[in-house]
Amino acid sequence: MTIRDIMKYIESEYSVINDTPCEICGGDYIAKDSDIVVINGIPYDICDCICSECGHEKTFQFCAPFAEDTGTTSIKNMLN
Length: 80
Ligand SMILES: [Zn+2]
Known about the structure:
SH3 type barrels, Metal-binding protein, elongated, alpha+beta, binds zinc ion, 3 strands
């Protein structure tokens, strides 16, 4: 899997976050922190988000198949 493919995954994750309104006030979530975890052998990208309007926190969980190939360190470096 290429960097371009990985960027597509990450972009789609951010578009999901951007398309999800805050369940409290309808505001926009912004990504605060992101981590790769492995659950039952499947890597997931866990993204902590916070509402830019009211501060409500929500955790988004995405399947992250690219993390297997590249390792978690390089992904974290890319996100930072
Ligand atoms: Zn809100």
